[in-house]
Amino acid sequence: MLKNYFIIAFRNIIKHKVFSIINIIGFAIGLASCLLISLYVFNEISYEKIHKNRNNIYRVGVNLTHGDNKIPFASGMPPLGPALQSEFPEVKEMTRIRVAGENIQFKYNDNEFLEDNMIYAEPAYFDIFSFELKSGDISTALNDPYSMLIKQSVSEKYFGNEYPVGKTFLMGGETNFKITGILAEPKGNTQMDFDMIASYSSLEAMGQYSDQWGQFGVDHTFIMLDENSDENTLTEKLPQLIENNVHPGMASIISLFVTPFNDLYFYSSVNNDFEPRGDLKQVYLFSIIAALIMLIACLNFMNLSTARSTHRVKEVGMRKVFGSNRSLLIKQFLSESVLTTLFSMLLGLLIFSLLYPQLNNFIGKDLAVSYLYHPLSLLLLLVLSVFVGIVAGIYPAIFLSRFQPMHAFKAFTGKSKTLFRKIMVITQFTIAICLIIVTIFVFKQLSYVRNVDLGFNKENKLVMQPPLDGEKLEVFKNELMQIHGVEMATICFAPPGSQSALVLNAATEDEGGGMMVNAISCDYDYIPMFDLEMADGRNFSEENASDANGGLIMNEAAIKQLGIEDPVGKELSYPLVPNSENNSKIIGVLKDFHYQSLREEISPVVLFLDNQYSSTLIVKYKQENLPEILNAISQKWESCSSFSQY
Fold first, then answer.
1. Nearest-10 Cα torsion for 141, 145, 151, 155
2. Confidence of residue 180 (pLDDT cuts 50, 70, 90)
3. Nearest to 604 by CA among 613, 620, 588, 592
4. Does pTM top 0.85 for this prediction?
5. Fewer C-beta neighbours within 10 Å, C or N terminus of the chain?
6. What is the largest CA-CA distance in the chain?
7. Would you list the domain boundaries of the chain?
8. Rounded to 5 degrees, what angle do the CA atoms 174, 170, 152 make?
């Protein structure tokens, strides 16, 4: 009997082709849109769920304070971790993580590459976080200096089809690391997804470790508390740890804070943090949009189904004349409606599968589709489709099946509009209008982001970080300046968009001035490179030797926060510029520019001349010459460096 219902239902769908196509495609597009948005939402909220100890993991960060100003850092001092473990019995496990940096040169035979996703970590890393090895002994893999774990993708780059465990490759042209294991890919989303993990003890062996509390902002310290402890109890003890271990002068400007590991992705907004970071407001917004789209698709399907049902009154009359009862008619209407939604579900999944790769390209992420193809997710999708089919079919099934044959042929005109249908139509249009308003709002926001005046010129710039420093980087810059089409080049710590923080004291009359500042080391061409405008004073000049020995250029926000009038020529209370023999002196004031995200207020920024901390090379080029310029840069690189890949 059930088979006959679906055969007849299929025939009716074929008979009314136009209506069926509109209804099926409409619901399928809504379903596919909801699935695509849900995929993004599920991936966002799944971060760090793979770690079984996540509820007991915390990161201990450092606040750098001066007066009312405070800047939080994710990374702290190297001795912090061991001190926490030795002084607080509730700390069950501890690991320090040090980010190795960017563009680190590795070489094995003729295979050489630059790596930028590497950390140093202690053996307890695998006791705290739920990562696994494809090969190697996880309990000893990071015990010895110069030990390293790599992902399969890294192994294939250097070793091809060779088994890498036990082999060594060269880092930075001077240090051999031994491969002790292959990292398995994480089973879910996590910020702790690194391509290479070297043993933390390697830092001391290479002379890069110091147990001084004054070495600030170096290591990320993660701890795992026992199940009977909590972060509040630990937080109360942290000031005493600083007092016991840190010099009083430094202790007065730093404090420690604890962040639950579960909060890092959405709620952490500190300096030196791991990427990526999520936006919970976005997740809520997209969740609501997905729900509204699905609701519109359902209402649209039900409206169309009930509208067409009014034209089937005579069909109901004929069926009753030939002996069909109300129960059979209800089952027939429901089977047609459910079959239509099942077709829509299959088409929706097909549309989703076709658009899924495009979504990845659009947002720049590799979203894990396994969440939606999980048996439970597919079961929920099936239940939703059947539910919509039943709800869409139940009204016409009950409404039409109650007609007596004579009434069906004579009394019904097909123009009845019930309160139920009116409510559905009004609701559908209301939601549609709301989504249109949201779309307009988002479009205007995107237009604003594209067209807002950032205060600097970001067009026609190439940003690169060659594995060179000091004089070698300067030589490479001069070589690039000889390329036809290269208009300018500058060496700096970072372009607008990155930051470093230092404590700055101003020489005000009451000696009470002070603030936190983003300090950028640069050369003489940084300001003209980005077309930054001077509000007062002048740019750095090679004709003024004192500029390289304490000269500073501040933005208007820095001057305003310091509260200095006529700032040009004023000195600060101590040398800000590293290796400077003189007190820092303000030689110019920049108009404010967006050094950080548009969501944040423009913060104080200081520029100073230095090449010790500058590792970024930026080139300004003519757009029409870009392909030739890129090829010329590659040739210059080969002539300037023994490292072939760049």
1. -110
2. very high
3. 592
4. no
5. N
6. 106
7. 2-46+280-447, 54-267, 461-639
8. 155
